[in-house]
Every structure is written in C-alpha cells, then in structure tokens.
Amino acid sequence: MKIPASFNIAGLRLRGDEIEVAGCDLVMYDNEFQKIDEELQRLHQQANANVVFLVDKNGQLIASAGDTHNIDTTSLASLTAGNIAATGGIARLLGEKEFTILFHEGEKDNIHISLVGQRIILVVIFDRRSSLGLVRLRVKKTAEVLARIFDEITSKAEKEKVEGGKAAESPFAEISDEDIDNLFK
Amino acid sequence: MSFINYSSREINCKIVYYGPGLCGKTTNLQFIYKKTNPEQKGKLISLATESERTLFFDFLPLALGDIRGFKVRFHLYTVPGQVFYAASRKLILKGVDGVIFVADSQIERMEANMESLEDLRINLAEQGYAVEKLPYAVQYNKRDISHIAPVEEMNKLLNVNSVQWFEGVATAGVGVFETLKGVAKQVLLELKKHY
To answer: In angstroms, what separates the C-alpha of B6 from chain A's closest C-alpha?
Structure first.
C-alpha cells in the first residue's frame, strides 16, 4: 500500500517515508479531565460504590473517585491492566474478540472491571451496600459517556497532529539534557 | 504510549526490561527499589512463582522529579524471561515507551540472548514497533563472573545497530541506574519531538 506524504492511522504516526513508533500517546487537558472526573463522581454516588477508578489499558491511572486513601492506586492500576491484558489474551485464544467485563467477588469487597471503547478500563470497587446488578446498570451508562469523552480526546489529538501544533505550555518545549540529568540526582 | 496529563501536570512513561530467563531483569528493579528514596517510589510488585521466577511481570513505579513543573513518572516493568511465557511477554510490551534489553554475559547463555532478542523483535513488530525506532539500550549483565564473553563480541551478536550499551553487575548495582537513565533520557527526548 502506498502511503501519502502525511497520513495518520490509529497507533501509527506516519510522515512521508518515515514510520514513527511513538504510537498514540494519551494527552489530556483540563477540560476533558474535569468531564471525566464529574462522570466518575456521579458513578461513585449512583452505584453506591466505595471507589471508582479509570485506568489506561497500559496500566496508567487516569482518574479516581471515592476514598482512595487506603488503596495503592498506582499498583491497582497496573495490576488491573495486567488482568485485562491476560483476559484479552485468553479471549483471543478462544476466538473471542475480548471479554469486556470481569468480576471478582470477595468476602467483603467486590471488584467490577469493564473495558470502555477498547482503550480505557473502568474499575468499580463495592461492598454489600451496593449490588452487582446496580453496578452493572450504572457502569453501562457511565461507559457510554466516557466513550464519547475519549472520542473527543482522540479527535482533538488527531486534529493537533494534522495542524502540527504543539501545546502552548508544553513541558518538553525547552527541555534540556540538564533537566533530565537533574531527575537522576 | 505515554500519558501526558495537563490537568494534574504529570508525564507517565513505560519502560520494559526484556531478556532471557535469569539474566537479571528483576534484580535490576530490586536494586532500583532498594536505592530510591521512599517518597519517589511505589511498591515493587512481583507476580512470581514459588521459586521466585517471574510469572507475569514485576512492576515498579518511580516518581523521579519535576521537569518544567510536570511530575515525571516512569513505570518500570520486567517480562517473564522463560521461553514458555511468550504470550505474557507480548502483553507486557503493549504501550511501551522504551526497552532495556538485559543480556546475560555468560558464554553459555549467548544463544538464549539471541533467541530472546529475536523474540523481542517479533513481539514489537506485531504491535507496529521497531527496535531501531524505539528508545532502547542494552545492558551486558553479570560482568563480575568468570566465563563471560567479551563486550566486543556481545556487541557484534546483540547490538548490530550500535545502540547505547552498558556493562552491568545488577546484584551490586553496577550500571543499573546508568542504563535506566540512558533509556529514560531517550524517552523524554522522543516526547520532545512530538509535544
């Protein structure tokens, strides 16, 4: 297939004959972050959940709602993504596209994990004050809203790529070797 | 795949340690964990078998500091090195920003090194990545033991593109931070090109 001089497809960024591998980085600004935060707060309340998390498929925590003080959120994000990745691997072995919902039942707490728009993982931790039925119902509604927000983020990123613009306050604009060396002092 | 959050002013990147079984990937992470200030690190998570072989991955989140007001976080992962965990290794490579290939310097492990490197190439290619285009460095580990191959020879076999390489003794921490720094720097400079 011939590739035009400048062409964008998901996961690959192509410029001329050069294939770059930086992939589709996730860049989030205040506006979208607020929207996501509001949606998670709503889900947290409506599902009567203890904690709600949103995790990138690669294990980065994006946002959370509820009482996170006693939870190691970074580890939880990484392990959840590992869990989803392993389950996805099993699905493909069985000829399924993926299993979109995982549910783990504990003695006190339960965890409901679902994939939103192929890319984001929505995690709800709840106890007996809620129920699986309620969580599933509320998660479904939230997932639709979140999918729309992430579509917006993706199209915004693609638009910026086409226009070649960089964020006005990019932390990378003036980054020097010294800045990087300082990280390791 | 990095995650740049302008709202919370954070940059998150993923670095994966790759290499054959028992080459010292987990040891690299353990040393980094041991030598990093408590406020800069999260828990070191090891999903390992009873005999302490990596089953799925090790994970260490590092908050290195600030660049221009943005917190810089690196998530370090290792893959399970044993050959039959191929399916798991593929999963860990998803969304990777930089790779450190840890090679075992022992002469009898050279074939395992080459096999693992080929496995890395294949798994990266499946996701549209190429080693040549990715922030990438090689660490020749176990330089302190006898029966090891000379670095020149290892470079010929495992580093045909002459990427950045480091000699290491991960158990004593030699070369561990140097290797991490080498790749972290490449990752940040790569991001600079795009944002």
So the answer is: 5
CA of B147 vs chain A CAs: smallest distance (Å):
33
DSSP string, B72-85: EEEEEEE---SGGG
By residue range, what is the domain housing residue B23?
3-194
Q: Which of B78, B71, B64, B107 is nearest to B16 (CA)?
A: B78
Residues of A in contact with B56 (CB under 8 A): 82, 86
- The CATH code of domain A30-156 reads 3.30.450.30
C-beta atoms of B91 and A28 within 8 A: no
Average pLDDT over residues A7-16: 32
Is the per-residue pLDDT at B34 higher than 70? yes
What is the pLDDT, as a whole number, of residue A117?
85
- Give yes or no for a contact between B128 and B43, defined as CB atoms under 8 angstroms apart: no
Number of domains chain B is built from: 1
Residue A43 tokens, joined: 């889900």
Residue in chain A nearest B86 by alpha carbon:
A89
- Mutation pick from A8, A14, A58, A76 vs chain B, by most beta carbons of B within 10 Å, is A58
How far does A156 lie from chain B, in Å, by closest CA?
14
Here the tokens at position A132 are 């699986």
**Mean pLDDT lowest among A12-26, A106-120, B125-139, B156-170:** A12-26
Closest-approach residue (CA) in chain B for A182: B65
What is the side-by-side order of every strand in the sheet holding A110-116?
Answer: A61-66, A51-56, A120-126, A110-116, A101-105
Q: In this predicted structure, what is the pLDDT of residue A105?
A: 96
Residue A166: per-residue pLDDT: 57
Average pLDDT over residues B42-59: 91
Q: Taking residues A153-157, what's their average pLDDT?
A: 85
Residue in chain A lying closest to B61 (CA)? A74
Token pair for residue B189?
């400079």
- Predicted confidence (pLDDT) per residue in B78-116, tens digit: 999 998 898 899 999 999 999 999 999 999 999 999 999
Q: How far is B48 from chain A (nearest CA, A)?
A: 13
In this prediction, residues B160-175 reach a mean pLDDT of 97
CATH of the domain at B71: 3.40.50.300
- A85 → closest Cβ in B59, B70, B94: B94
Q: Which of B92, B80, B85 is nearest to B19 (CA)?
A: B80
